[in-house]
Amino acid sequence: MYDEDQRINGICFVIPVNGNDLAFKLPARIPECEKVLISNMGPRTRPETKKKIPQQTERAAWKILSDRVEAQMAMIELSQIEITEVFLSYLYDHRTDKTFFEKLKVKGFGNLLEYNE
Description:
Elements (H helix, E strand, L loop, with lengths): L9 E8 L2 E8 L2 H10 L7 H5 L1 H25 L5 H5 L4 E2 L4 E2 H8 L10
Antiparallel strand pairs: 1-2, 3-4
Helix pairs in contact: 1-3
């Protein structure tokens, strides 16, 4: 996925699960990554290094996301974990443009773990 400036901002994919095509949307969160990289710079950081931060941030966030998906898919292929078990929070509803996690976050997590028989 790309933003309006054609910068990578996430990955979206569809996988069939029990006869249903489920969409998953994982954000790269580039701005958050950039803030962390900038905060970790020392006072002696060279100006040309600072100029490269936006591009470096995009590459780093994408690589982390790519590696994570690859590792999780390997676990799924080896029957160590189920797709919904690992990616449930990223289950994507294209009608609302929200993931399951984003919907839960808005509603609050307070009653999430209540159990009623």
